[in-house]
Amino acid sequence: MTSAETMRKWRSSLPHDQSIGFAPTMGHLHSGHIALIEASRKKSDVTVASIFVNPMQFGASEDLEAYPRTLAEDLAKLEQAGVAAVFTPSASDIYPDGIDQHTAVDVPGLTDVLCGASRPEHFRGVTTVVTKLLGLVRPHLAFFGAKDLQQVLVIQKMVRDLCINTEIITVPTMREADGLAMSSRNTYLSDEERAAAPTFSAMLEACATALSAPSADFDRILKDARKALIHAGFSVDYLEARHTHDLSPASSNSDEVALFGAVRLGATRLIDNRMLPAQP
Q1: pLDDT score at 87
Q2: Which end of the chain is less crowded, N or C, counting CB atoms within 10 A of the terminal residue's CB?
Q3: Do 164 and 78 share a domain, yes or no?
């Protein structure tokens, strides 16, 4: 389905007693995306996926045009995974009057830190398009990956604040055999960068373990971890421990604290996170 109208008609044709699961994606699918589909199929009668490279969430200097588009391969993967329908709208269908003239959805409090600090327009684009997609698909459940934990927290708040009748389900991060979190942007890495990239996830894990110790000195541990990442060749955007209920800084172990990290390796931005206390 390639238009909002066909999506609406298809959705209206479904029996009212069927539960609908939804996995929104930007395509260039990997095993992490397929995990969303598998989770949805376990919990829902009907699973829908979308593929839409959302221009509203890309900054002026970011990689919209370079973002990989592999529609034929993605559709084959989704068919094999057992989705009932795939929604592949165009930008003109989602933003018929253009992005500048389109109503935007802002979620205060969670979007001006971490990724929101370095990508100030990013979350406005995410929340706007997710609101539209949820309105068109009208799923009972929507599935998002834990790798993008800040995004999940933002969307959960948005759904709660706007009384959208969809439950947001978080699916655990899928990792490569060497520990690197799966991401479509991993394909941007050169062979040399790809060999070095797992150091980020390993250092994040080590930092989370250190922060989980009784009476851990958060400031010192985070400062040392940032220095270690820089020494390993990464440019550090942020490495911070924050409470997941409001993303305020955390200085000690308590419930609902996560370690968030974002780095650059060459031109490629990598993000990852760990919940605290770290699991042995």
Answers
A1: 98
A2: C
A3: yes
27, 74 Cβ separation under 8 angstroms:
yes
- Is 30 domain-assigned? yes
From 241, 202, 245, 200, select the one nearest 218 (Cα to Cα). Answer: 241
Half-sphere exposure of 110 (CA within 13 A, CB side): 22
Interval 26-82: pLDDT, tens: 999 999 999 999 999 999 999 999 999 999 999 877 778 888 899 999 999 999 999
Which pLDDT belongs to residue 62? 78
In 36-61, which positions are buried (b, 16+ CB within 10 angstroms) versus exposed (e)? bbbbbbeebebbbbbbbbbebbbeee
Count of the separate structural domains present in the chain: 2
Give the mean model confidence (pLDDT) for residues 84-100: 96
Assigned domain for 178 exists = no
Residue 271 has a CB neighbour count (10 Å cut-off) of 21
Single out the residue in 171, 194, 224 at which a domain terminates.
Answer: 171
Q: Could you say which of 16, 28, 30, 33 is catalytic? A: 33
Instruction: Say if 36 falls within a structural domain.
Output: yes
At residue 280, the pLDDT reads 62
Q: What is the CATH number of the domain that holds 81?
A: 3.40.50.620
Pair (32, 74) in one structural domain: yes
102 catalytic per annotation: no
Residue 250 near residue 235, CB atoms below 8 Å: no
Average pLDDT over the chain, rounded to an integer: 95
Burial of 220 from C-beta contacts in 10 A (0-12 / 13-18 / 19+): exposed
Whether 72 and 131 share a structural domain = yes
Closest CA to 216 of 206, 226, 227, 228: 206
pLDDT in tens, 186-245: 999 999 999 999 999 999 999 999 999 989 999 999 999 999 999 999 999 999 999 999
Domain that holds residue 80: 4-171
